[in-house]
Design goal:
The chain is an alpha+beta fold. It contains 17 helices and ten strands. Strand 1 and strand 2 form a beta hairpin.
Length: about 450
């Protein structure tokens, strides 16, 4: 969290803000009758009523927040006033750090935070590199055989292998990979499950049982001291915590393990899949990145990171961030009453033409030339911001860049078909397969 945010924790005096503009109910009814996605309604509200605007899907108002100043206020400057109430993935991740609140969240985040910065990140360098090399070798085989493969499936396989090595110290084996397909299966159907908790659990009980079995085996292995070839992993940190802190029951360790699996592979895999789909539409971006410097150079790495950042601008890891106001306040000068639900939407902030000229264009140069992107921190927040920003930000950026260092110069990807739709669930993802073939690049670039 930035120092400016930490200095500004005093709530605005209630009643001093101007009224939040409210969308015409007819707009909501037209959207409802048209059967569109929620994002379609939010885009119309933002376009018609501004960066802080209200709408009603029922008797209570919901406030949409896309204005950068209001975003920073809600997520970073006043996070204690705007809280999470219930995470949509709780059925899957239980009481893991993503869904935890209050003192439990602070305790869990403090334990994990050191693992993703400084020394903690250096511990994962070799594991990330080995996972990237494994994927690169597999792609070389596809190219030699002229084999068609699914890019999305490959990215999930790489990201799952990477986080599994980080968690356990072991590479991902085929059996574990098959069982952990249940994680993606549950995550994909969460938005469509019944509202009743028991009915929702019953609908995915078989997949949850598979996930629990993998988690139990991994925990027992870590507890037995069987370190992998890369040494102990994050799971060992959780098991050691259980010896000193009674809160870390086997159930909580399971929840943290599954949380890290979900957050550590689904979002990265989706970002990398979108990146290759975008390069298919904007092939010059690949050539510009590879021309930026020699393999292994700082210039090449910076250019590859820009590809990732621009992909995240268009398809942020969390496309919507629900919050609940616990007290009267006035983000960006708008009066928000205690008890109001808010939707902070990076997906729309990142596509605001007043912030990002020609926002639908894929242009990684925005992240290479400082003046080509907005300076306000609330204008770009693909991993959230403030104290609840994603713990694995640096891990995700590092593994994505390392994989691109191995894959992008070696092959040109040709898609046989591309997904026609976008699915807006926990993540925003391509809705369908992305079959492709590979053409080796001359001399591996």
């Amino acid at each position: 969290m930035d120092t400016e945010a930490s200095r500004d924790r005093v709530p605005t005096v209630p009643g001093t803000g101007r009224p939040v503009p409210e969308a015409d109910p007819a707009l909501v009814e037209r959207w409802r009758s048209g059967g569109g996605e929620l994002v379609d309604l939010l885009a119309q509200v933002r376009e018609g009523y501004g960066g802080v605007a209200a709408f009603r899907l029922g008797p209570a108002r919901t406030v949409l927040v896309t204005d950068p100043q209001a975003v920073q206020h809600v997520l970073a400057r006043q996070p204690d006033l705007y809280v999470k109430r219930s995470h949509r993935a709780r059925l899957l991740i239980g009481d893991g750090v993503l869904s935890a609140t209050g003192a439990a969240w602070k305790r869990q985040r403090r334990l994990l935070q050191s693992q993703f910065t400084g020394t903690g990140m250096r511990r994962y360098e070799q594991r990330i590199t080995e996972a990237a090399r494994t994927t690169a070798a597999r792609w070389d085989g596809y190219a030699r055989r002229g084999q068609t493969f699914d890019v999305g499936q490959e990215m999930r396989r790489f990201a799952l292998d990477t986080i599994w090595r980080a968690l356990t110290g072991h590479p991902l084996d085929d059996g574990t990979e098959r069982e952990l397909a249940a994680v993606a299966a549950v995550a994909a159907v969460l938005p469509t499950l019944p509202a009743d908790a028991a009915d929702a659990h019953d609908a995915v009980a078989a997949d949850l049982a598979r996930i629990d079995a993998v988690a139990r085996h991994a925990i027992d292995t870590a507890r037995g001291g069987a370190a992998g070839p890369h040494g102990p992993g994050l799971l060992d940190v959780l098991v050691q915590a259980a010896a000193e802190r009674p809160q870390y029951t086997d159930r909580l360790i399971r929840d943290e393990l599954v949380t890290l699996l979900v957050a550590g592979h689904e979002t990265t895999a989706t970002t990398l899949t979108w990146l290759y789909l975008l390069l298919d539409r904007f092939p010059a971006a690949r050539e510009e990145a590879l021309a930026a410097g020699d393999a292994g150079s700082a210039q090449r790495r910076q250019a590859l990171q820009a590809l990732v950042h621009e992909t995240l601008r268009l398809y942020p890891s969390a496309w919507i961030l629900p919050r609940h106001a616990t007290a009267d306040d006035a983000p960006a000068g708008y009066a928000v009453e205690a008890g109001t639900d808010l939707l902070v939407c990076p997906y729309l902030t990142h596509r605001d033409p007043e912030l990002w000229p020609d926002p639908e264009r894929f242009d990684p140069r925005r992240f290479l030339v400082p003046d080509d992107r907005p300076g306000h921190p609330g204008a770009y927040f693909p991993f959230g911001m403030g104290p609840r920003a994603c713990l694995g930000l640096q891990f995700a950026l590092r593994e994505s860049t390392v994989l691109l260092e191995h894959l992008l110069p070696a092959h040109t990807v040709t898609f046989r078909a591309t997904p026609a739709k976008t699915a807006y669930g926990i993540t925003v993802r391509p809705d369908g397969p992305a079959p492709a073939t590979l053409t080796p690049s001359p001399a591996g670039r």
